[in-house]
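Practice record 12: protein with magnesium ion.
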Amino acid sequence: MIELRDIRRDFQVGDQTVHALADVNLAINAGEYLAVTGPSGSGKSTLLNVLGLLDHPTGGHYLFEGRDTTTLDDQAQATLRNRRIGFVFQFFHLVPRLTAQQNVELPMSLAGIEPAERARRASHALAQLGMSDRAHHRPDQLSGGQRQRVAIARAVVMQPALLLADEPTGNLDQASGADVIRILEELNQQGITLVVVTHDESLASRAQRRVRIVDGRIEKDTGRREDA
Ligand SMILES: Nc1ncnc2c1ncn2[C@@H]1O[C@H](COP(=O)(O)OP(=O)(O)O)[C@@H](O)[C@H]1O
Ligand SMILES: [Mg+2]
């Protein structure tokens, strides 16, 4: 489903070049559950942003469902991201002035889905996450765990093939964090390909496959599923 070939991401900071990713080769099969670990600053978020088409690699090729995304223009990448990829962030990234329902409707607005259908699907997504009674609350009227549920509803409402989560429990108490992980794992069991960045080893050990990054390079890749 995904293939990264010799991916490199350099950041220019003043007269210094930071090699956030170097020589990254990684293939991910549909349906896999993969945890990415590594020290702070090792390139985990950069890798996830590249996978999510939120950032462009400096070099190399990224194949998504057989298409080389590095040859697509911004619009085509945005469309692909909107249709096929969901993203969950540590700090939720909900739009503050919009209700939970409106936040979940956003990706469908981008996709040009009609208002009635949008409302129907957003309500359904929120109901599946146990958030129906909070649909008309704004993010500042929700707890951290509830915000992350809304963010997950937004991430999956377009039924993406790939779900990326960058430290999704990093800003939550233990109980809400466990809850969020359980939801993500259920989505994976329903077929979505799941990549979770975490520095929590016990959380990483729940994933079938674990990739460790150090200094922008893949240092270890264990538990890879060879079939599928
Ligand atoms: N936008 C940016 N500009 C400059 N340097 C960056 C930028 N984003 C990340 N970096 C650098 O790239 C490296 C990897 O960062 P990141 O992927 O955020 O690490 P992690 O998520 O593993 O903590 C770090 O050295 C960081 O300082
Ligand atoms: Mg990070």
